Amino acid sequence: MLKTLSIKNFALIEELEIEFGTGLNIITGETGAGKSIIIDALSLILGERASADDVRSGAEKAVVEGIFTISGNRKVKSMLADALTEMDEEIIVRREVNQKGQTRAFVNDTPIPIAQMKTLGDLLVDLHGQHEHQSLLRAETHIDLLDDFGGLDALLNSFRDVYQELSGLISQLKELVSKRDALQEKRDLYLFQIKEIDAVAPQTDEMDKLEAELKILENSEKLYEATNKLYELLYESESSVHDQLVIVRNQLEDLAGIDRSFDNLKEECESARAIVDEITRFLQSYSSRIDFNPQRLDEIRDRLGALSMLQKKYGGSIDSVISYREKIGKDFALAENFDEEIAKLELSVAETRAKLSDIAERLSSKRREVAERVSRSIFNVLAEIGIEKAKFEVNVENRTYTAGVAALKPLVKLGTDYYETNEKGFDFVEFFISTNVGEEPKPLVKVASGGEISRIMLALKTILAKSDRLPVLVFDEIDTGISGRVAAKVARALKSLSSFHQIVAITHLPQIAGKADLHFLVEKVVKGKRAVTQVSQLSEDERVKEVARLLSGDDITKASISGAKEMIGIK
Fold first, then answer.
1. Same domain assignment for residues 519 and 548
2. Are residue 479 and residue 551 in the same domain, yes or no?
3. What share of the chain has pLDDT > 90, as a percent?
4. CB 192 within 8 A of CB 379
5. pLDDT tens by residue, 466-499
6. How far is CA 116 from CA 80, 105, 520, in A?
7. At what angle are helices 338-384 and 153-200 packed, to 10 degrees?
8. pLDDT number for residue 6
9. Is residue 149 one of the residues assigned to a domain?
10. Region at 507 (left for phi over 0; alpha for psi -120 to 50; beta for the rest)
């Protein structure tokens, strides 16, 4: 719902604010007063094109701001979820235009792209009249309106679930086929690489262990000589460290007998002798184990050479070589079993496609039934509001797919034919209409603009009211070319429609103005030697006078006052 529309320095409008209400909001005023300017300003915050001419002469920029309630509008909340950090049940949509025609768009003071503002506008307001902002004049929306009217959500959701399942399976199949083709080209290479790596059979941490062993073997003579020399120095020689420590210990023991302060030194010396004994035993044992093995040395060098070669070819480390071997092993095994895996997936695709096609056929059948009901209903409403010779058709079309390999696309298949398909089914829905005798119906999107198109929209909205999710409908010049009996029917249709939507309608007809829940008067006045457009909400007495003016012109009579009260419903 549009709660408030604020306009500043836009065309003839210096500054005004309109607080709209639920139900039917009527705007009237003399020709040229500026009613269409208000609609142009509203269009601006719905993402329509702006220009420097929109800025009031002498002002730096034009600003249009609308406050919308969005409770229950899940599409709007979903769309804005990523753009806004905070979002309540109301949003403020603002558009600014400077003197150069440059614009900025905001939602709750957060800048958004103009394209996003237009998308948001499509979810908030439908403008009908000499404007582009009309959802029913976009053929892609027709299938949604038909499904909503027919209550086909459950069947449509079932189709969408299976469609996504089929799309996923086909993606897997295409990936597998592509991988098979790529792997077949590499199969011989992988086989060679597997044999080369397996011939060496590298093990984790093997190189570190081999390099440590190699270092020992390459220095075995040095190790042998060094350990024997150390053994002799510590234990075997006449003045060995061991013997010298024994002498020192004995001397300290004698001194401790005289002065107990030498006790600790005696014990420290005994500990040193024990350490020397332990080192000696290790050296003796180590020396006895030294292996002078030239054959083992050659084996290790050959093994390290083979491992180094693998490292250079397959990743820089033994772990990388092992990981690469696991990968190509899996790919090679997969290449060996591709036909079987592809056959399994193809069977799943065929089964899921059959399931999808069954749901699609039932969904299409339901749509065609709903299309007939909608066509008849809209034909009757059009006759009631003055378009008596109209023909209206809901065209439900199925298109065979001929663009490429159908089996690898999520398409519906009936018999031997494949059909173009998307998440909404394999039906392409478009509204067709003819308003003149002898003319065949043409796409609704090609119908001429003006009052007639607004009445066509009114008829469509009247039938589709409960299912159409747009909260705000704006009708501009809906009364063009109608009067009398038809005007009264249009007024009743608008009033009925306002039970389901907030409606803003610009009119010159007293029959329509009399049905208003809120009535606004647009006037052009001179302020400071400049023309300014003003808007005021009318009281009950003012409403009577305005409707009377619409009945009889500026010369308001008792009869026109009486007629106005009757139209408004005042006794």
1. no
2. no
3. 37
4. no
5. 555 667 888 876 777 677 778 888 888 889 888 8
6. 9, 9, 31
7. 160
8. 95
9. no
10. beta
